[in-house]
Amino acid sequence: MMWRVARSAASSLRQTRRMSTAIAGPSIVHKRGADILHDPWFNKDTGFPLTERDRLGLRGLLPPRVISFEQQYARFMESYSSLEKNTQGQPIKVVSLAKWRILNRLHDRNETLYYRVLMDNIKSFAPVIYTPTVGLVCQNYSGLFRRPRGMYFSAKDKGEMMSMIYNWPAHQVDMIVLTDGSRILGLGDLGVQGMGIPIGKLDMYVAAAGINPQRILPVMLDVGTNNEKLLKDRLYLGLRQPRLEGEEFLSIVDEFMEAVHARWPKAIVQFEDFQMKWAFETLERYRTRFCMFNDDIQGTAGVALAGLLGTVRSQGRPLTDFANQKIVVVGAGSAGLGVLKMALQAVSRMSGPEAVPHFFLLDKDGLITKERKCIDPAAVPFAKSLGEIEECGLNEGSGLIEVVKKVKPHVLLGLSGVGGVFNEEVLKAMRESDSIKPAIFAMSNPTANAECTGIDAFKHAGENIVFASGSPFENVDLGNGKVGHVNQANNMYLFPGLGLGSLLCGARIITDEMLQAAAECLASYMTDEEIQRGVLYPSIDSIRDITAEVGAAVMRAAIAQEVAEGHGDVGPNELSHMSKDEIIQYVKDNMWYPIYSPLVHEK
Ligand SMILES: NC(=O)C1=CN([C@@H]2O[C@H](COP(=O)(O)OP(=O)(O)OC[C@H]3O[C@@H](n4cnc5c(N)ncnc54)[C@H](O)[C@@H]3O)[C@@H](O)[C@H]2O)C=CC1
Ligand SMILES: CC(=O)C(=O)O
Ligand SMILES: [Mg+2]
C-alpha cells in the first residue's frame, strides 16, 4: 500500500531528521565550527564523534574525550538531583525557578538531550516546564529573559507581518501556539510575559505527541497590556500601551493568520489563554477558514468530558446515565462554558435531543439565571429559569454553598481561577451529594489558584470521592494503608493528540466531531478496575501512548467527515483505506524521537 511506503519514508526522515537543512556534499549540516556548537538543534556538546569534529571544523573547540549520549544524559540527571538536594528547605518559588533554569539552559544548548530527558522524566519535569512553574516563569518573564525563542508580533508590526513571517528560519512549521497574554492560567493579564505558555505547550507537543521541535513555533501577539504593574515595570519587555480593542485587535489577529497561512498553509494554530471575549470570537471567526482550535475552550472541554464520563462509570452506572448527573460548574469563562457546551452535546447524543441536563452554572456573582442582566450570550443556554431554581429551593444569584447544599450535585467542577473557593464548608456539603462517589474537579491553574487541594478535598468531602485538579498534587494518604488518588484533569491529555491527528491527516479544519472523538478516546482509555479506584485519567508517564490513541481517533473522525486532505505523500485516498490499527501505527511511526543523528555522510 502507498502509505506504507510513505511510512518508511517518514521513519527514515526521522532517523536523519537533521537533513532538512542538508546541502549536497559530504556534510549534512550547512554550518561549521562554533556555529554548530551554538545551534541547539545540531549541537551534541561533548558527544560529537571524532569524524564529525574533523569534518565540521570542530577540532580543538571541544575537550578531547568523546562522551556518549547516555553519559551526557546521566550527567544532566546527576546535576538535577544535586540541585534538588542543594535547594532543600528553600522557598518553593526559588526551588521551582532553579529547576526551570537548569532545564531551560539545556533547552538553549542541546535540544536532542533536552527533549530526551523531558520525555523520559515527564512526570518530574512537566510541573517545571508546564503548570505550575510556567505560571511563575510568566510572572517573572522579563527578568528571566536571556535568549529569544519563538516569534513576537506586536501592534507596531501592523502591515509588516507578511514579510516578518519569513524571518522565521525553519522552512516548515507544523504547529503554532499563539497567545495574546490576556488571561495566563488563573494569573490574569501578563502581556508579553505570557510567552512562557506557548513555549511550555509546545514542549508538551514534542514530549507527548512527538511533533518535530524544528517545526514548532511559539508566538506572542503583543497588543499591549492592561496590567498596571507591568506597564510601570521598567524591565517589562512588551509594548507599554493599553490593549487594543475591537476592530483594531481583530485586524492584528487577522493579519497574523493570513501571514501564517500564506507561508505554511498546513500549519495548525492553537489559540491559548486569550481572555474570554476574544477566545470565543476568534474561534468562530477562524474555525471554518483555518486549521485551528482554542485549547481553553475545546481542549479543556474534551478532557473534562472524559473525566465526567469516568465519574458516571465510577458510580457503577451506564454512560446513558450522564444526562441524570447533577453538575455544578463554578466559573463561566472560556473554559467553564466550553465544558458545558460539550457536555450538553454529549447528553443530547446519548439520551436524545429532548433530554434535559442538570447543569448549574455559577460565576463571581453566583448562580446564573435567565433573569440576570448582561448575561453573556455563550452562557444563555445554561442559565436557569426562575421556575427551575425555585424547584431546587434556590434564588436568583444564590451563592456556591447554597447551591451545593440544595442541589446535592454528583459533580462539583471548578474553572473559576480562584484559589480555595471550594472551602471547608463547600467540601463538607459535598458529603450530602446524591452520588455514591461524589466528584470534585478543582481544575484552575496554577496550584495556588486551584479551587481546593487534594488533601482538603479528601479530608472534608470524605474518602469516597473522586478528585481531579488542573495542576498536579500528590496522592493523599488516607491512613490505614489507603490512598486517595489525585487525577490531573488538564488539557495536556487532549491538545497534543488533537494537534497531531489533525496534522497527520492534513485536516482542513478541526470539527466538533474530531474533538468528540478525542474525548471519547480518552474516556475509554481507562479500565473499569482503574475507574473503580478513582483513576479517571492515565498517568502522565503514558502520555505518549494516550496521545497516539487520541491522535488516531481524531484522524478517523476527520477522514469520516472528509476534511482530511492528506499529509506528505499520504493522500486522502490512502488515508481512507487505512484500518484502525494501521492508523494507530501510522501515527506512532510519525512521532519524532530524540536521538543524535549523523551530521556528515559516511565516505
Ligand atoms: N485544567 C485545565 O486543563 C484548564 C484550566 N483552566 C483554568 O481555568 C481557570 C479559568 O479559565 P477561563 O475560563 O479561561 O477564565 P475566564 O476569566 O474566562 O473565566 C473565569 C470565570 O470565573 C468566574 N469567577 C471568578 N471568581 C469567581 C468566584 N469567586 N466564584 C465563582 N466564579 C468565579 C468569573 O466570573 C468567570 O466567569 C484558569 O485558572 C485556568 O488556568 C483553563 C483551561 C484549561
Ligand atoms: C491548562 C490551561 O490551558 C490553562 O490553565 O489555561
Ligand atoms: Mg490555557
From TrEMBL:
Q: Where is the active site?
A: 130 (proton donor), 201 (proton acceptor)
- Which residues take part in binding (S)-malate? 183, 445, 490
Q: Which cofactors does this gene product need?
A: Mg(2+); Mn(2+)
Q: Where is the Malic enzyme NAD-binding domain?
A: 297-559
Q: Which reaction does it catalyse?
A: (S)-malate + NAD(+) = pyruvate + CO2 + NADH
The record ties this protein, via PROSITE patterns, to:
MALIC_ENZYMES
What GO CC terms are in its UniProt record?
Answer: mitochondrial matrix
Tell me where it mainly resides.
Answer: mitochondrion
Going by the UniProt record, its keywords in alphabetical order are:
Metal-binding, Mitochondrion, NAD, Oxidoreductase, Transit peptide
Q: Which Pfam families match?
A: malic (PF00390), Malic_M (PF03949)
Co-factor remark: Divalent metal cations. Prefers magnesium or manganese.
GO biological process per UniProt: malate metabolic process
Superkingdom per UniProt: Eukaryota
List the Gene Ontology MF annotations in alphabetical order.
malate dehydrogenase (decarboxylating) (NAD+) activity; metal ion binding; protein homodimerization activity
Compartments (UniProt record): Mitochondrion matrix
Q: Which InterPro entries match?
A: Aminoacid_DH-like_N_sf, Malic_enzyme_CS, Malic_N_dom, Malic_N_dom_sf, Malic_NAD-bd, Malic_OxRdtase, NAD(P)-bd_dom_sf
Give all residue intervals belonging to the Malic enzyme N-terminal domain: 107-287
Question: Where do the annotations place a divalent metal cation binding?
Answer: 272-273, 296
Q: How does it assemble?
A: Heterodimer of two related subunits.
Q: Record's family?
A: Belongs to the malic enzymes family.
NCBIfam families, A to Z: PRK13529.1
Q: Under which name does UniProt file this protein?
A: Malic enzyme
What organism is listed for this UniProt entry? Penstemon smallii
